[in-house]
## 1
Amino acid sequence: MKKNIEKKQIPVFKPLIEKEEIAAAVESLELGWLGMGSYVKKFEESIEKVCEFQPDDDRHAVAVSTGHAAIHLSLMMIGVGPGDEVITPSFNNAADFQAIRACGAEPVFVDIVESTLCIDVSKIEELITEKTKCIIAMDYDMFMCDHKSLAEISRRTGIPILHDAAHSFGSKYDGRPTGNQHQYTIFSFDPVKAVTCIDGGSIIVQGADQVGKLHAKRLIGMTQPAAQMYTNSRAWTYDIEELGFRYHMANLHAAVGIVQIQKLDKIRTTRQKACMKYYEGLSGIDWLVAPMGNISEINPFLYYIRILNDRRDELRKHMKEQGVDTGIHWQSGHTFSYLRDCRRGSLDVTEKIAGQILSLPLHSKMKSKTIHRIIDSIKSFNG
Ligand SMILES: Cc1ncc(COP(=O)(O)O)c(C=O)c1O
């Protein structure tokens, strides 16, 4: 009986783990080299292929244990340290705020644009001071930031952009894959992302010297060559020149990630179609906003709606009773007790949408009838 109820519940996230992922995981375990090794190299090469890097770009993927680790190391590479400030949307993942604080720096909260929930570029420059070391720009769900304007602000002010593309691996901006827009990009492949490797992340950097530094930083500072570890062996002597963390990726995770990337086209198409179905099914309802942009080049992470009648939590309860789980991405940074004293600009849109946003289930394999069941559960709410 219990099993039946569980079967009917539609989760917000559902990882696509099929026989190929399981076979790859078993194969990597049978290799007997559990740590960072040949699978990690292949995973990095697969990421670079998705990013369509050309030799002249000199851009490289460095795989790490999580997206959070990728942000932390990127900020360290930028030189963010005690007394510095990093501008970030308050409407962002806690991983970004904690990575800033882990560097001893302070987040400065900027607002978002209502139509995309991405950073409002027109409100960045008023927040810049001599302490500003970095601007974090995060693509949200199926929307991309205004990367052209961000690159222009960076050029004008000399402040680097850290592109948090945790949601947009496999998407394109103006025809170019994410990973090509700024000096630093990070991806997340955590359990709920469209492309997962169980847990993992990647930094995209330019230049062999940067790659070398990151290789040491992800290996508690040890300078032993990644090239050797990629042959499933290790050096026994090395130097430690800088601060580092145990942030490297394991073969098992990389093995799953490689197979997921092989399915990227299928994953993207399924998720795009699901978003379109949500949009078509929900756009006539006057008490909610069902967003849509041009998603032909987007690999959507989530589909969110905005509930305009102050009854979001009632709707969540109603949907739960109908067997549909929903999520909230996210609580804003400035509302957390740890971060409430951080400097900020006006956060009008952030405040406005905080009680409205609702994430609907989005899976890489999703039947039409599942989406219709979710749409029906919303329509049956007396809004
Ligand atoms: C925008 C954003 N940045 C960073 C992260 C952190 O990634 P990870 O969970 O891999 O540490 C997430 C995770 O959901 C995220 O959504």
## 2
Amino acid sequence: MKKLLQDIILERPLLGDGAMGTQLMLAGLEQGNCGEAWNLTHPERVLAIQRRYVDAGSDCLITNTFGGSRIMLTRHSEANHVVEVNRAGVDIARQAFGDKTGYVLGDIGPFGGLLKPFGEFTEDQVRSAFEEQAGALVDAGADAIIIETQTSLEELLIGIQAAQAAGAKCIIGSMAYDVTLDGSTFRTMMGIEPERAAEFMEEHGAHIVALNCGTGMEMERARDAVERYKKVTSLPVMVQPNAGRPQLINMKVVYDETPEQMVKGLLPLLESGASIIGSCCGSTPDHIRAFRKVMDEFLDAKGITRNGDQREN
Ligand SMILES: [Zn+2]
């Protein structure tokens, strides 16, 4: 039987995938259009992107459902398709693995607004949207739910509880940190420090603490975050840094870290004990391929095979 995600990463680190949003743009999605609807209208294009990540060596794929909650889909007049979009997202990722064993992480991104009293959304609205999305992802067979790019503990908690209500076997909470102006530290837009986030996630039953995206959170900062997480929690850690910073070149947003530059930060991340390493905005299958090579060398040096068995001496 396939091991639970939180169990297999105790044996060996796993490789995540790279960006979906920037890859959808390359495949023809226009800025501001609904990428998640492509799970229904252009499934072959989403599948092609995820197959490239599997071919590059990803052990985990994140579903194309970042904006797949009812609140987000309503903004694109897609509210009638919430369950279908999320279900198709899981099916496509599973299909991309083909006959390989891989882990499908059902993605829940931010609902894209603020909770009352700062914004117009009630906790109940967000809760019911996340419960509906988590339910669809779990029912479709996602191996885990990742609540990602989170900046507030209130929204994160609603996501964790929605995943629990849906019966998710593994729950990952992933925060987006920004490096402060003076460069001395990082916290989320809502002022949450990594130690607080990790303690909060552990207290509320998440299985894996993570970080993704953010501003200025490159590989080296991600390693700092792993170390800060590990000081306060024994839960495994997942990281998905961006491929550097966005630059506007010929009216197109391009991220400035090449696979060769980004992969330099991988070994320190592995040595700091990160259990799942992928990458976020701007990264490509080439970034993941470069990661795979270094991760395999790391596993070899430790005498761990890709299927997780300790090699006999
Ligand atoms: Zn990102």
## 3
Amino acid sequence: MRPTGKLHLGHLVGALQNWTHLQDVYDCFYFVADWHALTSHYADTGEIVGNALDNVADWIGAGLDPERSVFFVQSLVPEHAELYLLLQMVTPIPWLERVPTYKEQIEQLREKELNTYGFLGYPLLQSADILVYRADFVPVGEDQKPHVELTREIARRFNNFYGNVLTEPDVKLTRTPKLPGTDGRKMSKSYGNTIGLAEDEASVRGKLKTMMTDPARKRRTDPGDPAKCPVFDLHKVFSTEKTRAWASEGCRTAGIGCIECKSALADHLVSHLEPIAKRRHEYERRPDDVRDIFVAGAGRAGEVAESTMADVREAVKLPPMGSL
Ligand code: SF4
């Protein structure tokens, strides 16, 4: 996860809930990708460490357990950079230029100068992040599949030159529910339409009050269609079946108003966020503990990464670390 700001409901539903589930089944490595943040935020790096600590407090709030999963900050495990460098030697530039998100992001983030070597290389850095742990699976959504496919191609090409040293990862596809922001578009920091994980109740309720609804309901007496309402998409994720049935029926028949409907959603959302905020605050009060988690995690991650790199160096016929 890139530490570029505070986490919101989109992160919870799109990643953290799934990560929490996966830690019961697999040996998981989760990291704050500070070098990845630099690929687009290189001109303003002052907030990266603060964001990393803040994000991990949210991870723990959402139920991730540093005892069961490995948490770390990418730049504390320099083997990522070493493998990235070696992968650069064998990666044809057109493979990176054709990554779908590359052109898309340059287009979306026009205010930044992203015509850089670092930004072109970010999918390759992701490949190094995966391959350095010989990962079996990468949990991603549909839109990230091409990145894992690129990683597989690069591993094959590398192995072709140097022997069977890197493991081709598989995709662990996560289907995430639609999560619109307050303006009806996808919830995203760049649209300014998010509801934050650490927001207080008054702020959550206030944002829901002004959230966009089915435009057909101009007046209280106009019936609406929940399928056309972003508020109902949030009901699907956070409300009980009983509330959803009540909202759906009341919307179609104009039996309830949008204010009532949103207020019921707010009750569910607030009670969903409450335990997250509670766990988060426990850690927020102890920032040193979060730092310790990162350092201990970097040690555990570094052992695995170093073992891969020892094999990679040998395969490429480079000297082992610290000798010649
Ligand atoms: S009643 Fe609820 S689902 Fe229907 S338009 Fe209003 S907010 Fe949306």
